[in-house]
Amino acid sequence: MDNKEKALEHFRERSQSYNRSSRWVADEELLGLISALTAISSDETLLDLATGTGLVARCFRGKAKEVIGLDISRDMTRSASAHVDRMIIAPMEAVPLASASVDACVCRQGLQFSNLPKALEEVARVLKPGGRAVFCHLNAYGPEDRSDAFKIQALRNPARINFFMPGDLEAALEAAGLTVTRNVRHLSRESVNTWIGHGANRPEEREAIRDAYRSSSLEFKRLHRVEMTEDDIFDTMLFLLIRAEKKG
Ligand SMILES: C[S@@+](CC[C@H](N)C(=O)[O-])C[C@H]1O[C@@H](n2cnc3c(N)ncnc32)[C@H](O)[C@@H]1O
């Protein structure tokens, strides 16, 4: 099974319960940050890459001239049609839009499944000169927690192929010819039972994730402020929001 098929299978199983699969998905503060960093105007076109169920896209509906959603999964996007003006089912590595045709791109929690250089090349291509892109992705805090954080992220979603530390996405964006202009941190306190109860894994896979938390390093536990209660585990996860611009 190639990675695209893995992602399609994973999100087919998650599509019904996706909007309840963690705290961050519907977090108004996080969505507000994405919206504020994008600063869309009513005469502009916005492309939401890996739009999923449209939770990010819907923040822009009515505020932009056109909101376009793009995703590989028909299952995930079934409920998103109400939040976009146009839906495109396609991979973000080959966006079927003309070059220099959108004013702004957003992408929350999508790049971890992509061929990163290709996806960012596409962002740089479809943006108009002077256009901007805002990304929001889960990151490890740094070298101290990366090994446990990446192990847990891989166990939680086998379709994930990219793992981010602060600086990684900025470097990839600069390599794609975009200029990073803002970087904002957002912490999200997550119930691990909710986060791993997304409907696309088996009980023994969820138990392997709990075991990974129990055996994680002291540094991981300190940085993530891990709290083990009788029936759950809590993890403070780091999301980095990055704004990048295409030269005017
Ligand atoms: C974690 S969800 C994020 C959904 C939405 N952006 C949000 O923040 O709620 C990841 C989405 O990426 C989509 N996806 C995975 N690989 C993709 C690819 N190569 N191109 C486009 N979409 C992809 C999945 O189908 C899924 O809907």
Sequence-ordered SSE layout with sheet pairings:
Elements: H1 3-14, H2 28-38, E1 45-49, E2 66-71, H3 74-77, E3 86-89, E4 102-108, H4 116-126, E5 127-139, H5 146-156, H6 168-175, E6 179-191, H7 192-196, H8 203-214, H9 218-223, E7 227-228, E8 233-245
Helix pairs in contact: 5-8
Describe the structure.
The chain has one domain (3-142, 159-188, 239-245): 3-Layer(aba) Sandwich (Rossmann fold). The protein has helices at residues 3-14, 28-38, 74-77, 116-126, 146-156, 168-175, 192-196, 203-214, 218-223, and strands at residues 45-49, 66-71, 86-89, 102-108, 127-139, 179-191, 227-228, 233-245. It is α/β, with parallel strands linked by helices and 248 residues long. Strand 7 and strand 8 (233-245) form a beta hairpin. The model has no long low-confidence stretch (mean pLDDT 96). The protein starts with a helix and ends with a strand. It is built from 9 helices and 8 strands. Strands 1, 2, 3, 4, 5, 6, 7 and 8 form an 8-stranded mixed sheet that branches. Helix 5 packs antiparallel against helix 8 (203-214).
Summarize the entry for a quick read.
The chain is an alpha/beta fold. Helix content is 32%, strand content 25%. The termini are far apart.
Provide key terms for this protein.
32% helix; alpha/beta; 8 strands; globular; binds S-adenosylmethionine
